[in-house]
Write a structure and sequence with these properties.
two-stranded antiparallel ribbon, quinone, transport, NADH dehydrogenase (quinone) (non-electrogenic) activity, single chain, globular, NAD
Length: 486
């Protein structure tokens, strides 16, 4: 009877429970099937994520705390989990044709993505510093392996090693900060931490608490590739297989930024005066380094790494605003960021010459003549990332900058606009290379059907978002209000 009565309490975690069980089942399936099990495992993993998405939609909005208060559902978690599942699912679909053409068969790959997605979803719903860390490490340990999945190549192995070493360092910083916060507050639960810190209103927080908060922010900043904890991003993006880079650029960033929002606005919401300046500085540095660092890049994956750093800086502007409009702006920005990046990486995965993948920016020369459709879609993605209206990327930046203005952070918004103008240079340079430079040797004409579909759909969403923005914007506002209500 007791077991039956506890089942509804677990319902907010239905998607995570299903993913955990499915990951074990997929692993067993791959082991027993052997040989070339990747194709079947990939499609099964996609089906698993679709079902998990259905469970999140059905049960994820339940705000009843689960697992002794360590797991919290709600509209905010529901919104971000849908984005995470979409990013992971699209990364698996895009990896199929690439690995098949490279004769690389590893059924573990989709299984590891399912496990990392489980960790990301746990992070978003964590209601305790310990649960936060467990989710973070579940995600990270799987991603360390995925980064070095091509064990026969030096670049992939090096990328995995760098990611592991620096990721372990960031985890240590997060744990150290959490221990200092626990030493001051006597609890690791978000709700109780919020109560303790609210009671400090009008008093000066202790130095130990501030140091702990700074270490927690440093650990989380690493996960979103924010400056000055961005040093791993260009090397890992370049060294990891391109389907893995596509995953890194989307789902983990959404999860880590959602976690950033929950940690700073829920347990540490009463200490906004202490962390707002730190986040503003990190945002400015990320926007600046992302804009300037990409200018000198010749490898398109490294350029996308610096682009990612810059975009996380723009999103952190919304966090620095520390208001409901800022959170809604970040959620809209993350959804648009997913569309733009998935589409761009689908185009990068299609770049081949004589059957071999190419990654140089100048390999795009003459693309408008040999692949006019793909060139047009890359143009849409680049203009959108630069924030040129009326493309979707413009609205993402508009929402976060307006939130900063409403919060009185006018200088931060102005710096964001200036960084966006500087960053437009390297996006426009890609367009110039595609349309005005002559190709020494054109890219292969054959583009897999799944990549064509993905890049076309993402380009259409990015281009036509301004016609029907209401569904996404209203959903983001509802999620943001739920976060502040909680």
């Amino acid at each position: 009877m007791d077991a039956i009565t506890t089942l509804p309490v677990m319902s907010p975690a239905a998607g995570e429970i299903f993913l955990a069980a499915s990951a074990l089942a997929l692993l067993m399936f791959g082991v027993f099937k052997g040989g070339k099990a990747q194709e079947a495992t990939s499609w099964l993993a996609v089906a698993v994520m679709l079902i998990a998405g259905g469970l999140v939609v059905s049960y994820g909005g339940d705000t009843t705390p689960a697992f002794f208060g360590m797991f919290q559902g709600g509209s905010f978690a529901q919104f971000t989990k849908i984005l995470i599942l979409a990013g992971s699912m699209l990364a698996i679909i895009m990896s199929r044709s690439t690995f098949r053409r490279d004769s690389f068969e590893r059924f573990e790959f989709p299984v590891l993505i399912v496990l990392s997605t489980l960790g990301m979803m746990m992070m978003v719903s964590a209601n305790d510093m310990i649960a936060l860390y467990v989710g973070l490490e579940t995600q990270s340990l799987a991603l360390y392996v995925v980064a070095s999945i091509r064990r026969d190549t030096l670049r992939s192995t090096e990328a995995g090693l760098k990611y592991f070493v620096l990721g372990a360092l960031s985890s240590c910083m997060l744990l150290y900060g959490s221990s200092m916060v626990y030493g001051f507050a006597g609890t690791t639960e978000f709700d109780k931490l919020a109560t303790v810190f609210t009671g400090l209103a009008g008093t000066e927080p202790s130095v130990g608490l501030i140091i702990g908060l700074v270490f927690v922010i440093c650990g989380l900043a690493f996960k979103v590739s924010a400056v000055p904890f961005h040093m791993w991003t260009p090397d890992v993006y370049e060294g990891a297989p391109t389907p893995v880079t596509a995953l890194f650029a989307v789902a983990p960033k959404v999860a880590a930024l959602a976690l950033f929002l929950r940690v700073l606005l829920e347990p540490f919401g009463a200490l906004v005066g202490e962390w707002q300046q730190i986040i503003s500085l990190i945002a400015v540095l990320s926007m600046a380094i992302g804009a300037v660092g990409a200018i000198v890049q010749t490898n398109i994956k490294r350029l996308m790494a610096y682009s990612s750093i810059g975009h996380m800086g723009y999103a952190l502007v919304g966090l620095a605003a520390a208001n409901e409009a800022g959170v809604a702006g970040i959620l809209v920005y993350l959804a648009i960021y997913l569309f733009m990046n998935v589409g761009t990486f689908a185009c990068i995965l299609a770049m081949r010459r004589q059957g071999r993948a190419v990654e140089g920016i100048h390999d795009l020369a003459g693309l408008s003549k040999s692949h006019p459709g793909m060139a047009a879609m890359i143009l849409i993605f680049m203009f959108s990332m630069a924030g040129i209206p009326p493309l979707a990327g413009f609205f993402g930046k508009w929402f976060v900058f307006m939130a900063a203005v409403d919060a009185g952070l006018i200088a931060l918004a102005v710096l964001g606009v200036l960084a966006s103008v500087i960053g437009a240079f390297y996006y426009l340079r890609i367009v110039k290379i595609m349309y005005f430079d002559e190709a020494e040797e054109p890219l292969d004409n054959s583009v897999p059907g799944d990549l064509k579909i993905i890049m076309t759909v993402m380009a259409a969403v990015t281009l036509l978002f301004f016609i029907v923005p209401a569904p996404l914007v209203s959903s983001a506002k509802a999620a943001a209000s739920a976060l502040f209500a909680g």
